[in-house]
Amino acid sequence: MKIGELAQRTGVSVRSLRYYEQQGLLDSTRTPGGQRVYAPEAVDRVELIQLLYAAGLPSRTILTLIPCVTTGHATRDMYAKVRHERTSLQDRIDELTRARDQLDEIMEQVRRAGITEEAGAAEAA
Predict the structure, then answer these.
(1) pLDDT tens digits for 97-110?
(2) CA angle 27-42-53, nearest 5°?
(3) 72's torsion region: left (phi>0), alpha (psi -120 to 50) or beta?
(4) Do the Cβ atoms of 9 and 47 come closer than 8 Å?
(5) Nearest 5°: phi and psi at 29?
(6) Nearest residue to 46 (alpha-carbon basis) of 64, 62, 68, 31
(7) Three-state SS across the chain?
(8) I want to staple 68 with a disulfide (CB 3.0 to 4.6 A). Which of 12, 26, 74, 75 is the partner?
């Protein structure tokens, strides 16, 4: 598929797809006219890249993880990197969960105390 179709199928801009190629995260072949052509598996690869970016991983780290996904094999160093990233991600999830729980408590306190229509009404009461 051509770059425009890949962009449409993944919801990622053409510019981002070119960046992924520059970073070594995504491969394409070229037509005789120089147009990029991607294998069908590129959709899954781009979705994985997007997911890892959303999780906060930088392209350099994603690049080290891609071979594990492609081949299913990893060196000890690669595996250690994957474990480290997973631990870091879990720490962030735990932090976000604690923040969400605190907001839930605040919302419950507000519901019990009553919700006013105007911002200044609570101060006047």
Answers:
(1) 999 999 999 999 99
(2) 90
(3) left
(4) no
(5) -110, 170
(6) 62
(7) CEHHHHHHHHCCCHHHHHHHHHCCCCCCEECCCCCEECCCCHHHHHHHHHHHHHCCCCHHHHHHHHHHHHHCCCCHHHHHHHHHHHHHHHHHHHHHHHHHHHHHHHHHHHHHHCCCCCCCHHHHC
(8) 74
Q: Any bridge partners for residue 36, and if so which?
A: 30
Contact status, residue 10 vs residue 46, Cβ threshold 8 Å: yes
CA nearest neighbour of 67 among 18, 123, 21, 25: 25
Look up residue 47 and give its two tokens.
Answer: 């979705």
Nearest C-alpha neighbor of 51 from the set 85, 78, 79, 83: 85
On the question of pLDDT at 90 being above 90, the answer is: yes
> Which residue in the block uniquely carries the two structure tokens 């995504």?
26
Backbone Cα Rg of the chain: 22
Residue 62 token pair:
């994603």
Closest by CA to 69, choosing from 82, 59, 58, is: 82
What's the pLDDT tens digit per position in 7-54? 999 999 999 999 999 999 999 999 999 999 999 999 999 999 999 999
